[in-house]
Amino acid sequence: MAWKERFKKFGVPGLILFLLITLFSFYFMSNDAEIMKDLHRKMSILLTADFLKYRTKNSPLLQALQFILLIFIYGLFTVGFVNAFLIVKKVIFQKPSALIACTIHDYDSYLNLEDKLGDVLTALDQHSPLRVIDEKVTIFMISHQTEIQRIFGLKERQIEFVWYFEGKDNDVELVYLNPPADMDGVAKLLNSSLDMPYVRVKEPAVNSRMELWESPIKQFITVRNYGNLKLGLGVFILKDNIFTAENLKEFTYYTSKMILLGTNSRFLRQIRRKKNIGN
To answer: Distance (Å, rounded) from C-alpha 94 to C-alpha 279?
Structure first.
């Protein structure tokens, strides 16, 4: 049991220390050491309990035990005060989450992305020429990728994006604005993520997989719709130790629209069309 292990670790040394302090206190008290008596008197002033007060009529052993008890009481007060200070300090100076700490610029970028998506949907509603719709879809994809790059604090060469959807015969079709460095690794990571029943899947240590230990991809995260695959986005990071609780939380918030985006059949057709025209 845990308490037994703790007793084995601290019980015997603590008991020895207690006995040593008791012996030293008893020795000083029995030899009329004024410094110990004065210290005993001053330490007991703040406490109202009579049994802790220094009295000359008490035996040296009782005085020593009283003195030790006072030391433990003040020690507990000190430990409690220090812990309370550390807790308050942690609460006050704790780094806020990415969502709370976002600057006005970050929120503006969210709104800007919504505007880009709105431009695509408006163009679809207005039956704009395919060239115009394709241009707006590309702008939306670039804006989406740029924001994710910002969330993870990476340079353009350190992150890659692949959009994917279900093709014919249940094959997975890929669309990307820039070809990834390791297409084989991309395919393996996406295929394994599709075997999991989650809309978001992440792998913080891609190279720990035997078949990907030489891949330039270091970390991977993807988001897609619920149910059968309609549309997903894979994010491939070419740098180690990027994921944090804060940026993953912001990524979750930022990509929440991706869960539903694939249900818009007209938007999905435009993504498929980009595949047909060679990205």
So the answer is: 44
Taking only the tens place, the pLDDT of each residue in 90-145 is: 766 654 444 444 544 466 666 777 788 888 888 888 888 989 989 998 999 998 99
Domains of the chain listed by start with CATH number: 2-93 (no CATH), 98-276 (3.30.450.40)
Sheet holding 172-175, edge to edge: 172-175, 159-166, 232-237, 219-224, 200-203
DSSP-based helix, strand, coil % in the chain, nearest 5: 65, 10, 25
First to last CA, the chain: 61
- Enter the tokens of residue 56: 């000359």
The rounded Cα 116 to chain-centroid distance in angstroms is 29
The candidate with the shortest Cα–Cα distance to 219, out of 150, 174, 152, is: 152
Whether this prediction's pTM lies above 0.70 is answered by no
Taking the C-alpha atoms of residue 53 and residue 62, their distance in angstroms, rounded to an integer, is: 11
Strand runs labelled E in the chain: 159-166, 172-175, 200-203, 219-224, 232-237
DSSP category for residue 7:
I
Task: Please check whether residue 186 is in contact with residue 200, taking contact to mean a CB–CB distance below 8 angstroms.
Answer: no
Please check whether residue 244 is in contact with residue 151, taking contact to mean a CB–CB distance below 8 angstroms.
no
Give the number of C-alpha atoms closer than 13 A to the C-alpha of residue 190, restricted to the C-beta side.
Answer: 25
Q: Are 120 and 134 in contact (CB under 8 A)?
A: no
Token reading at 190: 């996406």
Report pLDDT digits (tens) over 189-236: 999 999 998 999 999 999 999 999 999 999 999 999 888 888 999 999
Q: How far is CA 231 from CA 9, 47, 119, 277, in A?
A: 56, 70, 19, 18
**What is the token pair recorded at 180?**
């990834």
